[in-house]
Amino acid sequence: MARDIVVFTLHKSASMFLHRQCQRLCELGGIPYHSPNVPQSGMDARRLLTDPDVWRTHHGCFAPVRFFVDIPRIEEYDVVLHLRDPRDVLVSMFYSYCFIHPGEIPPDTGYRREVALRGIDEFVLGKCSAASSTYRGDYGTGGHVESLIGNLPQRYRNYIDRLLGKPNVTFVKYEEMVTDYRSWLERFSAPFPLGNRGALLDAWAEERSALFPARTGDVMTHVRHVAPGDHRAKLQAATIEELNRIFADTLDALGYVRDAR
Q1: Are strands 61-65 and 5-8 parallel, antiparallel or unpaired?
Q2: Which of 13, 68, 166, 199 meets the CB 3.0–4.6 Å disulfide criterion with 158?
Q3: pLDDT tens digits, residue range 220-245?
């Protein structure tokens, strides 16, 4: 019997792209797909976190799960852990929260505009603090379940402490997905049962330019950047220094450089 698969990631780490990839891989491999991004699937975030029967009664691939879940008998799963530099995640969260993601109030209005006016540096540091949950709404940041999953530093620590380095866990990075898609895809797709794997991955790799188009933009147009290292352009040096302190162990464990601008 094939092993079940779970793909863990974080908000603002191309999780919707992972959803589409996993859906495609499951179709080709002939395995069931369970996702919070499938309408009426019953796999909403709160249920995944609080109902262990979900994991006992469903089999196949679960993706993307944007926070650590203490799955029963997780050692029997093939786990893929896909993470991004937390400093870039925070920058992306700011634009999502203030300007891009749909939600209970329109972008750039009300309290979302108030957050934007206070600036990105206050936001990213606030999302790392005990006051993170005071930001109303979700808007692609995980705020709706933050009481269960913790702020962003806690989410990374959960992954590092509970998954990183385990024999059944494949660790891949967002940055490799963007810069060396073929290599990333080979490791990401390894748990999925695929026929003619090499030719299939070669064909998918040819799609890279369409998957990651060149993007331009600035704070006024609110265009998100795909390329790694966006925090260097968007944050003050003092903010980066503080994030380097907050995420010191995480950056070291995941192999990110503690740099400044």
Answers
A1: parallel
A2: 68
A3: 445 556 778 999 999 999 999 999 99
